[in-house]
């Protein structure tokens, strides 16, 4: 790299944040809130200020909401807090020895600390026709706006992928009276995320909404000349389509870190303070792979909660400086949500790997609570339209409160009373 920017009068080169999503925004905001006084720059690849992504697959695509409604903070916030946002640029390379990054426009920025909040990218399926007009992906506001514009002349929609995004969009478009078909290669919906019991509940409810669900179906090609007209399945069947959304998951953006010699494994590997092998460089959010005590393994989580909590920890770590060793390791309870039509799915803990699921008998249509165990250990709780149990579950895991399988299976088990009893005993 060529000569980099000089230190400020305070002697600090400051913090450079690579990524303008939820994690990047939060670490910058938390640094200023915590009293950090050095230079602070967010390098945001999209030509927009940081904004919320969750509404993109729900309200944003089915309404004429303005982009400003998504903003995490208005432009005045960044001006007031002396946070420089270089929108429409990205970090192209890291020079660890010099303590500097090179941007895509050729500019070099020196740093005392670099925070990689570079997120993830949509997985592109290597199928013929995926680049035809009318074939969409959904991760950015620009992609959501293109999808929204394409809906005007589209009656038949095929969604490839039965995960959170695919099902959220399916429910949103069905509310617009579109004919929606979801094609999922696995044998159930949300297979990597929820229990079979909860998966089965959503399969039935989406079909009740009028959404066609094809399980165990692989896509062989997207058909059309200039524009999509159909999706061909591996068995040869063709599904007519005016618009196609490919929602086949994401892959972490860890190449930048790998090229800089940092360890990666389905994400950028970090320690219990979100630091990479280079103590001046951190990774947070969708791109970070870390050891979770709730799974007892290395995980990479894609959630607003994870991005926010990791960002706050890194800000605290940077501000603490030499005293950072006294900061407790990252142990935020993971939780997630997905709004699919009238159903709010909330998950606390990491329930993948559960070998026993105990369903609470609620006697209420459209509501459920699933307790997910591995042996006798409660991994997490999945709920639908039961926010009270979700919040109690977060408390259970955060405070290491014990609930036995036998207790949950007991007729009339009351989670609220159980938690209260444990607190009295403790």
TrEMBL record:
What is any Pfam family matched here? Pyr_redox_2
Which InterPro entries does the UniProt record give?
FAD-oxidoreductase/Apoptosis, FAD/NAD-bd_sf, FAD/NAD-binding_dom, FAD/NAD-linked_Rdtase_dimer_sf, Reductase_C
Question: Which controlled-vocabulary keywords does the entry list?
Answer: FAD, Flavoprotein, Oxidoreductase
The superkingdom of the source organism is Bacteria
What region holds the Reductase C-terminal domain?
A: 335-417
Cofactor(s) required for function per UniProt: FAD
Record keyword Oxidoreductase present: yes
A single MF term (Gene Ontology): oxidoreductase activity, acting on NAD(P)H
Start and end of every FAD/NAD(P)-binding domain? 15-311
GO cellular component terms? Answer: cytoplasm
| PANTHER family reported for this sequence | APOPTOSIS-INDUCING FACTOR 1, RIESKE DOMAIN-CONTAINING PROTEIN-RELATED
Q: What is this protein called?
A: FAD-dependent oxidoreductase
Q: Which organism is it from?
A: Jiella pacifica
Its lineage reads: Bacteria, Pseudomonadati, Pseudomonadota, Alphaproteobacteria, Hyphomicrobiales
